[in-house]
Amino acid sequence: MPAIPGPASLNLVEGFLTHCSARNFSAHTLRAYRADLTRFVAFAGEDTAVDRKLVRRFLVQLYNAGLKPTSVRRQLAAVKSFCRWLEAEGLLEAGLIDYIASRYRRDELPDVPNVGEVTHLIEGEILQHGPANCAAQKPERDRLALELLYGCGLRASELVGINCEDFHGEDVLLIRGKGKKERQVIVGECARAALKAWLPVRQNLLQRIHLKTPALFFGMGRGKVTERLDVRSVRRIVGSAAEARGLDPEKWHPHLLRHAYATHLCDNGASLQSVSVLLGHAKISTTQIYTRVSTGRLKRSYDAAHPHAQK
Fold first, then answer.
1. Fewest C-beta atoms under 10 Å: which of 9, 259, 272, 305?
2. What burial class does residue 83 get, using C-beta atoms within 10 Å of its C-beta: 0-12 exposed, 13-18 middle, 19+ buried?
3. Do 155 and 290 fall into the same domain?
4. Residue 299 pLDDT
């Protein structure tokens, strides 16, 4: 079993990240892996062999440091991926880190808003950004962003990656997901209406600022023009919309709308396989959490309505 001293371990981490980059991992994933594995290497210290006991001690340290369960699970996933790569490279004995799990369930149920709450978020007045008559005020763009996040179940990174040419006909949209995997999603009537409202505004704005870009969404804020909207701006759009409706902007974020999309499909009878394809999940087991969300809602309805529920 190889020892992993500090400097050598960091070199191995760089080799692992190069491997991940070659497999088209996103820049966000690479940054998270680098941070998590640097912390793991620092914990391991000099001349420490990687084994189950080391990984478990690392998890205990994370729990004791007060990290959120989601952060602990993310760091454990990074360490496991790293160790699997070491195994594949012949640098670590196979199976040493198998069956190590977080003490928290991986499939915790997200607190998903109901249809009425999402409708209230999307269809209300869009909160404007910047001073009056500022070119950064683009309610049509923001409306379309909200419609696509919820209506197509997109990740924020997928939303900003959309090009105008990715629309096939009126109701099919090509999406490039994690690992540059492509999938097609269905564009509903509300999103199509928002698209028709945004396209002429988009064209006029591009002419005003003399910009050419294939991106459906471009950035124009704080005196800076960018050819493509960034993920941080998408978070601001959702948070601003929530604030304008009197909702908690800390609760509402782009991925919550993706959760709502999947849950509401399952609530209304969509097959698990169909939802998995629409979400772009590599494994259908990843999608099964949304069936448990739906079951949880049924239980809450029963508890609230049935005379014998509380006995």
1. 305
2. buried
3. yes
4. 73
